[in-house]
Amino acid sequence: GAVVSQHPSRVICKSGTSVKIECRSLDFQATTMFWYRQFPKKSLMLMATSNEGSKATYEQGVEKDKFLINHASLTLSTLTVTSAHPEDSSFYICSATTGTDTQYFGPGTRLTVL
Amino acid sequence: AQSVSQHNHHVILSEAASLELGCNYSYGGTVNLFWYVQYPGQHLQLLLKYFSGDPLVKGIKGFEAEFIKSKFSFNLRKPSVQWSDTAEYFCAVIPARSSASKIIFGSGTRLSIRP
After folding, report:
1. Spatial separation of the C-alpha atoms in residues A21 and A31, rounded to whole Å
2. CA distance B52 to chain A (A)
3. Rounded distance, CA A94 to CA A50, Å?
4. Contact present, B76 and B19 (Cβ < 8 Å)
5. Spatial CA neighbour of B89 closest among B114, B75, B110
6. Is the pLDDT of residue A19 over 90?
């Protein structure tokens, strides 16, 4: 149980375009979902926390207009990277929790912006 | 500020050696503690967690961790490592009763096992 999926697993896009990444909790309802960014050989950096039906809470330094988060249901959250630039290239990971403090992580999405 | 420190950035061991990875956190209140593992090319998986009770916690694949409150530590151990344990290991903390459940990760320790 407690499986989280992400789609797509890899995406390559041109600079200036927008990319949407989906995060789904497959066998449980997630009260809260989190979006992280992982840099090479570095730890995960929390970008934002999202609760179903409400606006996401962004961490300091994360541009909310650039990284749009929508948590439409208890099993789906989306991250849209708008007007992507090469510096947005990274590994984006989502996690989901039922509120018990244990987070279940998705497999990640590798974004490459050309 | 709350933080998690993993002092070993890269550990190299031979198979059958014993393992101990250090983890210290800075937070004055009660915390929930986790160790996650990320195998090459795979996503983060929960190894074990401590919320309360017996401070010696057993996880999957023969791993265990001991919570020592006085030292603010939660070190990960395994008596005999295998080549398949090669991975990145992350210690993490959530302040208990944190409504947002925001997890704070350490910087990770890369474990390389020589066959």
Report:
1. 19
2. 13
3. 10
4. yes
5. B110
6. yes
